[in-house]
Amino acid sequence: MGLFKRKPIAAILAESNAEGQTSLKRVLGPIGLVLFGIGVIVGAGLFSITGLVAAEYTGSAITLSFVIAAVGCCFAGLCYAEFASMIPISGSAYTYTYATMGEFTAWTIGWALVLEFSVASILVAISWSGYFVQFLAGIGIVIPPELCAGPWNGGIMNIPAALIIVLMSLFLMKGTETSARVNNIIVFLKIGVIAAFIVLGWQYINPANHTPYVPENISGVFGEYGWSGVLRGAAVVFLAYLGFDIVSCAAQETKNPKRAMPIGILGSLAACTVLYILFAHVMTGVANYTSFAGQDGLAPVATAIRQMGDADASGAIIPAYPWLNRAVIFAILFGYCSVILALLMGQSRVFMTMSQDGLLPKLFSKVNSKTRTPLRSNVVFMVVIAVLSAFAPPQIAGELTNIGTLFAFTIVCAGVLVVRRTMPNAERGFRTPFVPFVPLAGIVVCVALMLFLPADTWMRLVMWLLIGYDVYSLYGMKHSKMAVGDGRTRRGQSVFNVICIGLGVLCIVTGFWHQQTVGMNADKTLLIVASVFGLIHIAWYTLRLTRKAN
Q: Which of 360, 386, 451 is nearest to 118 (CA)?
């Protein structure tokens, strides 16, 4: 069969309804899914980037940026909810795409999800390490700096980042029920501290700090305050919403998923949107947005808490709640744990589903009969992600997280348009309203936010996709359950080769685009890497194309 052959929904549903010792255990209900979603959404984005965005792009109007980003997420969330109620299986956007657009597109989106979950896990683990070291320093325990940072950040290896990946992986291996209990406890702690910040800080809001609400763009530079700054801020704070899509990865561990999945996805997204807007309003109300510039922007909560109090005779603010800083750091540490837990779970579940379809080795779909989890897959990810967290530079991980997610959201929104035409009578527990407006609006918003991301981020996305297509051409294409024989004569390979050649060209183009943005006289390492990488793939897939023609 061809590379664009769709997987029958009947076959997907048969897999999702499988029972027994080698299937995943169904333990989650609607409330558990909402808490699971909140656990992964509320994390690094809220506690780290809000101050910098307010200082550099939006001012007090960061609340409007959160609203715009939430609207884009809502469009995508409605599309996810329809698919999750229609195809309740752990593969998330990968499975939805397989059923609507075929294997090749499904592989593309599955590989993009792996990028999202992997780099997000690394980023959050590294950030957790920084807060953990800060927390220990506050109680008199000092860890040598060279053991808390990777080689690209002046250290040897980031041991705390690696250890938190190992610890969360061990919880995950114990089973979903145990992981869910741990996540629920963490979520209540995290939400409690955020609520305390909002309630206690509300009385110290200074209306002057919100005037003007949208600072004027005096410099004339696009994205520096004004409404262009609000839009750029929306593209950046989108990171704070990442994770609601991971709820769909728990479909096979959910009781009555057709009803519970839409509630989990949309409920967690709605709850976090309200929290974010209130949080940002208080943050920029108690402290002027200019106070979050520079290093203080990396810890915006601490900066705001220092302004919660009354002035003494000299005019200096005496913090009314000095204990709140320690509580916030404590909540951040546990909050990051729930994020890592959910990301690792989503990653292993997507790989498990891809492996069940024959696109990846059987190692990733083997379910342990005692824990009812893909134990071997979890061990592999534990080792790989822990090592990368110990040595990888956090800058690259942060740059790739947003674009991988936005790419997945775009495909899911497009999938709803396709499935409404190709499978209008398929059973659904939830229907996306106002089709085609909602999915089209989701596509427009997601693509627009992607265009606001830097050139080097696009370059790395193209390189990652090419690596994925290499794996697909060497293994997945031949071992797919949709293939006949050895898979070498499958239809659509010429189109596949042409796409890969085009991506090779795009890799070189994005390299030059990045070089132009930083200056043609600047360091050319990325340009050289992109050019060599692109040329190798152009040559390889051109050779495959000519062999196919002959």
A: 386
The whole-angstrom separation of Cα 401 and Cα 230 is: 21
Domain boundaries, the chain: 9-453, 455-550
Looking at the DSSP bridge assignments, the partners of residue 158 are: 148
Residue 145 and residue 321 in contact, taking contact as beta carbons nearer than 8 Å:
no
By CB atoms closer than 10 A (0-12, 13-18, 19+), residue 507 is: buried
Phi and psi at residue 92, in whole multiples of 5°?
55, -135
Give, rounded to a whole angstrom, the gap between the first and last alpha carbons of the chain.
20
Q: 394 — phi, psi (to 5°)?
A: -65, -25
Helices within 287-374 (DSSP H only):
300-305, 323-356
Q: How far apart are CA 414 and CA 79, in angstroms?
A: 9
Cβ 232 vs Cβ 223: under 8 Å: yes
Q: How far apart are CA 108 and CA 350, in angstroms?
A: 12
Pseudo-torsion of CA 439, 442, 447, 453, nearest 10°?
-160
* Number of neighbours of residue 185 by Cβ within 10 angstroms: 14
Q: How many residues in the chain? A: 550
User: Helices marked H in 88-148 — which ranges?
Assistant: 93-100, 103-138
Q: 240: closest CA among 53, 505, 477?
A: 53
Cβ–Cβ < 8 Å for 80, 248: yes
Q: 86: closest CA among 470, 431, 518, 530? A: 431
Q: Which of helix, strand or coil describes residue 419?
A: helix
309: phi then psi, degrees, rounded to nearest 5: 170, -175
Provide the 8-state DSSP code for 315: S
Q: What is the pLDDT of residues 144-165, one digit of tens each?
A: 888 888 887 778 899 999 999 9
504 vs 511: CA distance, rounded Å? 11
The token pair that represents 444 in the structure block: 């427009």
- Location of structure tokens 């200056």: 519
Alpha-carbon distances, residue 45 vs 51, 224, 236, 420 (angstroms): 10, 20, 9, 34
Tokens at residue 366, please?
């083997």
Nearest partner of 423 among 87, 16, 181, 167, judged by Cα: 87
Averaged pLDDT of the chain? 81
- 353-360 mean pLDDT: 87
Max CA distance (Å), the chain: 88
Q: Which helix (H) or strand (E) holds 310?
A: strand 309-311
321 versus 420: the higher-pLDDT residue is 420
Task: Return the SS3 of 287.
Answer: coil
Strand partners, 318: 310
Q: Is 420 helix (H, G, I), strand (E, B) or coil?
A: helix
Fold classification of 9-453 is Amino acid/polyamine transporter I (1.20.1740)
DSSP structure class, residue 309: E
**Tens of pLDDT, residues 265-324:** 788 888 888 888 999 999 999 888 888 876 555 567 777 887 887 777 776 777 777 777
Coil, strand or helix at 296: helix
CA distances from 72 to 43, 114, 318, 451 (A): 19, 22, 40, 14
pTM of the shown model: 0.79
